[in-house]
Amino acid sequence: MTDYPERWSQVEVTFIDGSIETYEIKAGSSFGRHLAKQAGEENVLTLLCGPKVHSFPLASVRSWTLSELEGKPE
pTM surpassing 0.90? Predict the structure, then answer.
């Protein structure tokens, strides 16, 4: 079994109404491709943030950006 380094990313979600929310997920930037595929298939952007799961219908999302962080967030 291969051990992978722990990576964290920040996801900034911009909603149709112009509001912006930021979330931290335990995944590297390459996870963005999976999020995009899943959102496209299910019409829902789902973010796993530790013990919480956030789901947003794509109809309410204008855009989202995933940026890998340097190290673990505080």
Answer: no
pLDDT digits (tens, 9 = 90+) for 14-47: 999 999 999 999 998 888 999 999 999 999 999 9
Question: SS3 for 6-59, per residue?
Answer: CCCEEEEEEECCCCEEEEEECCCCCHHHHHHHHHHHHCEEEEEECCEEEEEEHH
Which distant-in-sequence residues (6+ apart) come within 8 Å of 30 by Cβ?
A: none
- Domains of the chain from N-terminus onward: 9-68 (2.30.30)
Eight-class DSSP state of 60: G
Tokens of 39: 């959102």
24 residue type, one letter? E
CA distances from 7 to 17, 19, 39 (A): 31, 27, 21
